[in-house]
Amino acid sequence: MGALFVISSLRTIFILTGLLFTMTTQASAAVKSEIVCVQCHGSQTGRFAKPVELWRGSIHAENGINCNHCHGGDPGDAENAMSPARGFLGTPVETGIPGFCGRCHVGVLKDYLGSKHGKNLGKGGPTCITCHGSHQVKKTTIELINEKNCSRCHSYEKPSQIKRAMTATEAKIVYIDSRLSDFKGKGIDTSAMEKSLFAVRNRFHTLFHELNVARINLQTAEIDKELEQQLQSIKRLDETEQKRKLVGVMAIASALLAALVLRLYVKSMD
Ligand code: HEC
Ligand code: HEC
Ligand code: HEC
Ligand code: HEC
Ligand code: HEC
What we know:
Mean pLDDT: 88
Bound molecules: heme C
Number of strands: 0
Distance between the termini: 71 Å
Transmembrane segments: 246-266
InterPro entries: Multihaem_cyt_sf, Multiheme_Cytochr_ET
Low-confidence stretches: 1-32
Shape: elongated
Order of helices and strands: HHHHHHHHHHHHH
Number of helices: 13
Signal peptide: 1-29
Largest sheet: none
Protein name: Cytochrome c3 family protein
Keywords: Membrane, Signal, Transmembrane, Transmembrane helix
Strand content: under 5%
């Protein structure tokens, strides 16, 4: 028994040291060498350097999506980095952009292609980068739908209908999210509610690219119903919380009362 224990803990130590070793070497490698695309383009000037600067602040950089993940090529070999033989794709032409982005955003691509925007690709319809940019892509919010962005090619009437339908739902999601983290901070188990909020939020955020006002209205109405249930649960949690506080206050009050009675009693004995 004893020997076995020693052997198994030695093994654990070996594994741990091995892991630590790989982790430190990987970390120092990451500090030492940025991929060659970033190194070389970062030292260019003008339009060949700009992508690096813009990309650094993007949600893609944040999530480890690098130059080569979009443009292809070899990020470890400066000499052959942009060789087609290493998978370099170059810069997409306008009509190629949705497919270029849609390699990863498959669901969005499908909705986009089915929409009036996708059907007008190459004929005055916007591509992904008209709305999101190519290198400076940020986390999206509903504020991307605004008069300046959406009235360049047509009236703002339909965009504003979409925005109206989505705004109230978005606000509810944000509210529930912040209340759940409050409760979590107080040690209340919110994991089940978080899970269903996550699912609802994902469903909600896939509504836009189809541009189907009627469907968006229908779907947000359904999502609102689910959110209403969550709001009810939050109300119940609030009430339990209130009761707990009341019980606490009453306990303190009765302790004070007891102390007072005792003091009066002791005084009356003097
Ligand atoms: C999310 C995908 C994506 C990533 C990541 C990305 N690019 Fe691009 N890039 C594009 C698209 C789309 C275009 C074409 C449209 C345009 O010019 O904005 C483009 C265009 C370019 C161009 C041509 C610019 C011009 O004016 O002709 C260069 C150079 C470039 N990218 C370099 C880079 C470098 C370097 C990185 C890494 C720091 C990078 N890109 C990361 C999507 C991406
Ligand atoms: C040694 C320097 C160097 C390296 C490494 C390098 N580039 Fe470039 N790149 C350039 C220069 C210079 C240009 C502009 C002239 C040209 O097109 O050759 C350019 C142009 C581009 C363009 C726009 C022109 C086109 O062909 O579409 C893209 C996109 C691009 N690079 C992406 C990348 C990516 C992705 C990597 C890494 C896999 C990379 N580059 C690595 C120097 C470099
Ligand atoms: C190699 C895969 C890949 C390619 C190609 C790619 N993306 Fe992304 N994109 C990601 C990942 C990973 C994330 C971060 C995780 C997430 O939010 O889905 C992301 C996030 C985003 C977001 C933010 C989503 C949010 O939650 O708000 C937008 C917008 C976006 N990408 C647009 C684009 C556009 C536009 C292009 C083409 C120019 C593009 N992506 C090309 C992988 C990719
Ligand atoms: C007309 C402008 C417009 C075009 C064109 C467009 N988007 Fe979007 N996109 C938006 C808006 C607005 C949102 C935010 C919707 C929300 O908050 O629910 C969004 C959200 C997203 C998201 C995050 C939500 C999700 O469904 O994951 C991704 C990723 C994304 N877009 C990628 C793309 C890609 C890829 C393309 C091209 C195939 C594209 N977009 C075309 C405006 C646009
Ligand atoms: C580059 C031009 C361009 C931009 C920018 C643009 N659109 Fe469009 N949009 C079009 C075209 C083209 C059509 C199709 C017109 C038609 O069939 O009448 C269209 C149609 C629409 C429709 C009608 C869909 C239908 O089925 O009737 C909606 C909704 C819409 N766009 C929303 C938006 C929103 C929201 C934005 C901003 C985030 C936006 N558009 C930005 C070009 C654009």
